[in-house]
Amino acid sequence: MAERIDNFADFYPYYLEEHSNRTCRRLHFIGTTLALATLVAAFVTLNFWLLLLVPVFGYAFAWVGHFFFEKNRPATFTYPFYSLMGDFVMYKDILTGKIRF
Q1: How far apart are CA 31 and CA 68, in angstroms?
Q2: What is the DSSP secondary-structure string of 15-32?
Q3: How far is 3 from 18, CA to CA, in rounded Å?
Q4: Which residues of 67-98 are buried (b: 16+ CB within 10 A; e: fewer)?
Q5: What Cα–Cα distance (Å) separates residue 74 from each residue in 4, 12, 21, 37, 67?
Q6: How far apart are CA 18 and CA 12, in angstroms?
Q7: Is the whole model's pTM more than 0.85, yes or no?
Q8: Which alpha helices (H) appear in the chain, and where do they start and end?
Q9: Which of 27, 38, 39, 46 has the fewest CB atoms within 10 Å, counting from its CB?
């Protein structure tokens, strides 16, 4: 990737290319699900220490997917905000069947 991407519409196709491995996508989905569930649990139980686990779940599963299955560098390192947005859009696309789980 030579040029800097300046908008999410241009970033998301790149993001999907970086997530072409099905196992990597599945690990992202699992990590995002656990992060969201932990976020909800923290507020339901009022145990805000659980919030410390949200980024652990969110990133650990994704990075395992990238380093061991996709064999690339996570986009988070270059585009942190777009990458987070991309993760949630890909999550929605997997939930709705637009992207294969």
Answers
A1: 15
A2: HHHTT-SHHHHHHHHHHH
A3: 16
A4: eeebeeebbbeebeebbeebbebbbebbeeee
A5: 16, 13, 13, 23, 8
A6: 10
A7: yes
A8: 8-17, 22-45, 53-64, 80-95
A9: 46
**pLDDT for the residue numbered 3:** 83
Question: What per-residue confidence (pLDDT) applies to 81?
Answer: 96
How many Å apart are CA 65 and CA 22, to the nearest integer? Answer: 9
Q: How do residues 23-37 score in pLDDT, each as one tens digit? A: 999 999 999 999 999
How does pLDDT run across 2-27, given as a tens digit for each residue?
689 999 999 999 999 999 999 999 99
How would you class 100 by CB atoms within 10 Å of its CB: exposed for 0-12, middle for 13-18, buried for 19 or more?
Answer: exposed
Mean confidence (pLDDT) of the chain? 95
- As a whole number of angstroms, the distance between CA 20 and CA 33 comes to 19
Residue 1 pLDDT exceeds 70: no
Amino acid residing at 64: V
